[in-house]
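Q: What does the assembly look like in three dimensions?
Context provided by user:
Components: four
Sequences:
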Amino acid sequence: MPAEAKPSAKTAQPKTAQPKSAQAAVRTVQPDSPPLTERQEARRRRILHASAQLASRGGFDAVQMREVAESSQVALGTLYRYFPSKIHLLVATMQDQLAHMHGTLRKKPPAGDTAAERVAETLMRAFRALQREPHLADAMVRALTFADRSVSPEVDQVSRQTTVIILDAMGLDDPTPDQLSAVRVIGHTWHSALITWLSGRASIAQVKIDIETVCRLIDLTEPGGKST
Amino acid sequence: MPAEAKPSAKTAQPKTAQPKSAQAAVRTVQPDSPPLTERQEARRRRILHASAQLASRGGFDAVQMREVAESSQVALGTLYRYFPSKIHLLVATMQDQLAHMHGTLRKKPPAGDTAAERVAETLMRAFRALQREPHLADAMVRALTFADRSVSPEVDQVSRQTTVIILDAMGLDDPTPDQLSAVRVIGHTWHSALITWLSGRASIAQVKIDIETVCRLIDLTEPGGKST
DNA sequence: CGGTAATCTAGAACAAGTTTCAGACTTGAT
DNA sequence: ATCAAGTCTGAAACTTGTTCTAGATTACCG
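A: Here is the predicted structure of the complete assembly.
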């Protein structure tokens, strides 16, 4: 009955399926969502690629839906079927990049002695990676913070991915509520500091200091921390 | 020669002045910029009022430039002369509201024993105020995070204002670099936590926890703190 | 193979932010 | 009072995100 499966509003969109890359690492996504045809999978990848490419040049504004459609050889309507809005598209692009980064980070675990050091090192490493593609970073981060409720699931997924990366760096498997809260705060800081840097309101040095500062919170929640 | 003074690109708009950044940490606004005529001042206020009003209803999307112009009895072109973009307008609206809030907060200083407690209390109070106008909060915060470099001066001004509020709550006049960094991190967290709440990804309780968590950082930087 | 339902395409159409323009209006100086 | 320069107005035009439509394609079932 259906033809190429059906990436309809609940299917092909970035929301669902991603038997993709990082999943193995942490169960990146939801198990549901009808599988995509190979051609559909290919289309999806072409779209994400075009998105990242355009973003790498001019940033958020350079990612124009018509251009993405053209670049990825897909009709505008189809693009919208896969990604219901520009924001959805860019958030999906971020999920993609994050998964990639997580994989990279895993290969070379940070070497610090304390959890705080390792987390700070990891975040700075991620930050350095973003510096290499500032426009892309701009597009993704702007999309992330501008996203409204209709994109919550996807944005939440990105948050979770970030949390996993931080917990990984801490070397924790089973964090206490206190630690989870600290991790959330670190995520907030990382995110917000990134924005101030992207908009030219903070220097790289300042971002570094802020990250190091917030990472001290970890010591406070560590069982054997200084406050014990 | 000029007529009603000239709110031209460099005047009435919030853009100008930037002898700023950390300059006086309190010097809320720019001393320069040609003074506005009374009628211009009135127009500006009408515009900001209309903006806040529309935002209080539907949030970011409900603030449509044509409507703002109509509501404030100003031609569209004039609106754009005063505020070069919707983002500029909303950020200016935020400056307005922030100034108002700072005034309110000053009247009833927080009563906590420690600086951390006072800051947390102050932020939660501000948070409660925002809860009363969630749509307005949404519009302002989304504008703030979406702002690109062309709005940096204004956004920076908002950051500074926030910093002042926090320092006020701490009861500090002359913060150390360490403390300033902690304050920045608290600002990041406040901002980002607000976003997660607005987009429905975090509960009020969670925001509270995060704020309390990050405020503990203050203890770490306090001269007589536990780490000394 | 033929049928059918869903997908994809091309392109028009719509919405809201932003720009542009000609002409009427103000302001401050002479 | 007059004038020059800058401001405001009203309306059209332009841009880019998003929606809609009719028809061509594709996938899968029997």
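Follow-up: Chain B touches chain A through 38 residues (CB under 8 Å).
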